[in-house]
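Hi C.,

You asked whether I'd gotten around to modeling the 466-residue construct. I have! Everything is below, sequence then structure, no commentary in between.
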Amino acid sequence: MSRAPTSPSQEAPKQEPSRQTSPWQESPWEERQSGPITARENDFRTPFQRDRARIIHSAAFRRLQSKTQILAIRQNDYSRTRLTHSLEVAQIGSGIVHQLKHAHPDNSLFQTWLANEALMETICLSHDIGHPPFGHGGEVALNYMMTDYGGFEGNGQSLRILGKRGAYSPQYGMDVTRRSLLGILKYPVLQTDVVGEYPPKPTSFRQIKAHQWSPPKCVYQEEAALLNWVLAPFSLADRQRLQQTERHSPKQHAKSRHSSFDASIMDLADDIAYGVHDLEDAIVLGMVTQEMWQAHLLPLLADLDNDFLKKQLASLQSNLFSRKSHLRKDAIGTLVSWFITSCEIHENEDFEHPLLRFQIQLPDAQRRALDALKNFEMQHIILTPEVQMLVYKGQQMLLEMFEALASDPMRLLPREIAKEWYITDQAGGNAQRILCDYMASMTDDYASRVYNKLFVPSLGSVFEPM
């Protein structure tokens, strides 16, 4: 690791306040949009502990228990949901923080800015909180219907919920701290700065090709002021670097190039959970066999020049495909531990502030191994016709529901949503965003019930609440 900067551009946050009154005037990263609040009597929690509590007790977080991760909900009672995935990401993220704390005790600046457990859990627990029902199919459907109204993207929706739409504040959503918001910003760029060109819309929803309507990774234009507030403590030069993009062709979406230190930890934890834990689901359910592992994944892993893999690969394969659950769990734990304990700190000296200057990364062999696991799951699980048919079905359901609800919102939307839609429309705002918020918040089960109520004559009842 290269040398640490000697003068950070902002005073470091105090991780454990010693008094009962609110401490965020001491650090801009502990501020909330609503301003200072007074702690409840005998409440000595830190701001980030409060953030974590707000996430865990929110309806948006609870709904993740019935949102698709990879395998559709209710196809079995074993596979992970967005909720269990988020819990695993939080556990891995906390593990990375703990590893960094003890593996690099000599770097005082790095240690000063390393997230504590409550902060990292807050970021990891909420990283998928804006994802719609039916996984990628739902995201494509909502983005397709919103292309003329600012688009839809899961990470951008997460920021919108945390900073504007959650239930803890009438104006500021869950009103979590600035640093928690920074941590979930994997893509700190506005939609208008990265969106590419879409093809002409087909005459029928059934003709939509999903890859042509995937959204750019971004923040909505409606959240421009919120994004500016989150990034306000950084210097102008740092903000400009952070929001740099790259575009490979004029028609393609551009991609953001940078994120914060905290977001890099969350993103790696997300990759590990996806690459390792989601593989476990597929093995247990028989979607991935030992023969598939040997044919497509083993050669790639065996080709990596790494002592751990040379020693452990045979036992990993044996245990992963063992009928004994404790052996399979041991293999999963061994892989996760290998990735966590291999983490390294990278320092980008183009940035002034430590929260942007430091990044987490894996050594080459570990990164290639994790990429191999993720690519294997993409090709042999996610892109299989059996899975894609379910993704397509969810996509079609949301497309038809959006079209129907948008045709007469005051008639078909739940009363509170209809009222908000009307007020926004009358004020000249983006009323379609209110409809999109409602549909993105749906669980898979709830979306299926609404679809049946709208389109299946034999299903649905006036006694069933919306």
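If it helps when you're writing up: Residues 1-11, 14-25 have pLDDT under 50 and may be disordered.

Thanks,
B.
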